[in-house]
Amino acid sequence: MYGGFWYYLKNAFNQKDNSLYKILAINILVFLVLLVLRVFLTIGGGEELYRSILSYLMMPADVGKFITQPWSIITYMFLHEGIFHILFNMLFLYWFGLLIHEYLGSRKLANLYILGGIAGALFYVIIYNFAPYFSTQANHALMLGASAGVYAIVVGAATLSPDTTFHLLLLGPVRIKYIAIFYVVVAFANSTGANAGGELAHLGGAALGYFYITLLRKGTDLGKPVQTIGRFFENLFSNRPNVKVSYRKKYPPYKSEPLKKNPSKSNNSTSQEEIDKILDKIADKGYDSLSKEEKRKLFEYSNK
Hints:
CATH class of the largest domain: Mainly Alpha
Radius of gyration: 22 Å
Oligomer: single chain
Strand order of the largest sheet: 1-2
CATH topology of the largest domain: Rhomboid-like fold
Number of strands: 4
């Protein structure tokens, strides 16, 4: 399991329909870059410069400041400073994201994460600017973290398959609907605490996750604009075609074209019979079911 995780994480940007690992990889890479930047700038006496750079990437509660840095509604959801902050966010993203990916596919998982982050940011801005309790804090409040997008995925998974069971340490088997309810209640209870902005974003992301799945069941996909933008950037930065294979029945999320076969140039190490068995395995269980060696053989054969 863990070998597969690290393989997909390392190759996140070399594969299509792999949003879960792309999101994980971006969050981890940004965390490491910020960590190195903070250490070097702090040692060199540039801690204020680091804070200034970070503030341009964080989500401000002040509407006027947000207008001058609109990109922050996206960048904030990939920022973390504390090791435990990113650790728990990425663990929950991975556990619940696997369920969303299995049922709905890669693109809808990305929809949930991005829309959840945006919904969380907007809810945070609205409450900070209209609730009297936060009126004195809106001018300087800033927010960062993937939690809103993660909450959207957690609640979305619980809405989609509420009786799926996770086995938790000390607690044993627990249905994910109860895990989601627990975390939403905790976020609500802490919405006036020290991390009020983050907890409000959690609630906004959670609400988006519920409504996204509910509307999707009725045939309305709120994530179509996200998919359109995602495809644009995929095409923009794609510098080589992916390996394409053919199989007898469709198994989302992978799309394929017929594999070119040339028996006259067959590789001694990979017979036609082996390739046929690999294609049958993809048809029955999907591309993810292949071993590393089977993927290597398929890749080499397709490049003949």
